[in-house]
Design goal:
single chain, mainly beta, four-stranded mixed beta sheet, 1 helix, flat
Length: 78
């Protein structure tokens, strides 16, 4: 299996912007995911203790991971 993609938290999803070249529209409300390997294939989703692993439905390559728990807070520096 290829390496897992970085773990995304709610804050990451809220800050996501359009990645279409030259797009300047800032009102993208829904988040649309596409697998880079097979953009029209759809997804398979697996749940692993607080994390959704989203895979390309065609080749099972990991596309992203989404946390379903809150992002851990940074420890206070003392």
């Amino acid at each position: 299996m290829p390496p897992l993609p970085p773990l995304l938290y709610r804050q990451d999803l809220d800050a996501a912007i359009c990645d279409v070249p030259d797009c300047t529209y800032v009102g993208h409300d829904p988040l649309v995911l596409q697998a880079p390997c097979h953009p029209r294939a759809g997804f398979a989703v697996q749940y692993h203790t607080g994390v959704l692993l989203i895979l390309c439905q065609r080749c099972q390559r990991p596309v992203t991971r989404v946390a379903v728990q809150a992002q851990p807070e940074e420890p206070a520096h003392q």
